[in-house]
Write a structure and sequence with these properties.
Blueprint: H1 2-24, E1 37-43, E2 55-58, E3 63-67, E4 72-80, E5 83-91, H2 98-112, E6 116-120, E7 123-127, E8 133-140
Antiparallel strand pairs: 1-2, 1-8, 2-3, 3-4, 4-5, 6-7, 7-8
Length: 143
Amino acid sequence: MDVNRMLVVGLVAGLFAAGCQAASSGSAGTLDLAGTSWLAEDIDGRGVVDRLQSTLRFENSERVSGMAGCNRFFGSVTIDGGAISFGALGATRMACPAAIMDQENRFLQALANARGFETKEGLLFIFGDKSAPLLRFSRTESE
């Protein structure tokens, strides 16, 4: 009887560990993006301006908001498995220095060109039509 109980406990522990590993693997579709916040580390392979934060927050499964660089933005998102697309994004209209506006324009253009995403090791990658990611984000604490 004790051997059977130990086998059941071992089996349950093994299934639990496997489930935890699968949930944290970070492949596309395993992370529910709703309620998460991200900081851009790279935009279209050109990096980002030091101390300028371009952010992306998934308010829920259909709405996003964030800071593009100079201006705040908001809009819709559609996520289907590993596919992602952003609807028309609204934004405030402040003017900033050229380098900041350049990063903002690259950031918003990359979101407009998004076709897929993947999460891996605490990072979010957003892809367009090519294999190289358009955007690389690190996860931040939710607001």
